[in-house]
Design brief:
This protein is an alpha+beta fold. Among the domains are: 2-80, no CATH class; 97-158, SH3 type barrels (Roll). 26% of the residues lie in helices and 13% in strands. The protein has helices at 2-15, 22-35, 45-50, 68-80, 90-95, 103-107, and strands at 110-114, 126-135, 139-144, 147-152, 156-158. It has a five-stranded antiparallel β-sheet with strand order 4-3-2-1-5. The longest helix is centred in the N-terminal third of the chain and has 14 residues, at 2-15. The chain starts with a helix and ends in a 65-residue tail after the last strand.
Amino acid sequence: MVERFHRQLKNSLRARLASSDWFEHLPWVLLGLRATPREDSATSASEAVYGSDLILPNQFLIAQDPPSKQFFEELRNSMSGFRPVPARHNTSSASIKPDAIPTALSTCLMVLVRKDGHVPPLTPLYAGPYKVLSRSPRTFKLQVGPREEIVSVQRLKPAVTSDDQTPALPPRRGRPPRLPPPVAVSPPPPPKRRGRPRKLIASAFTPPREIKSVRFKLIPTFI
């Protein structure tokens, strides 16, 4: 039950195109989920808890609030006849293939295709819209970019678009294109110094000078 609610919560956030700022959309999404009647019981979560519907933003109060005692009696009477709805199992019904094309798919000009495999969180579950070329009870032939593809009916959903809507292009497959090598940019020349030129300073290392040797010829004398 918790995983089913998480799935519904993620779908609602996807519908609002929430990405990294999903926490800002969370209060409005929870308000909508708690105020929406369920398909199996025709009652909302707020009505089951408080005994009446929530007053949504931009709605005005029809009548004043009843006294606390009267409200308690009405809440007890409404909850006494309420029976819990058994849990639904969608696996068996989803595995049964329809015998005919649904009415919405048989008349639409474009469809959305469900993405298979792993989908990152809060990303659209369907790709498209793509133009419908032909139909059969099991498969549809679609115009996906420059090629034609045959897709199962179970992966399709009718796309509500305008008449002048252009079909979407398929996502690029394979490795991303290689980027051109970066152009080497030479550093700018240093700015010219203004004023008088600096005096040259002799370097600390100077080559050794040649040492000249002088020899004297001494002739010994005898006294």
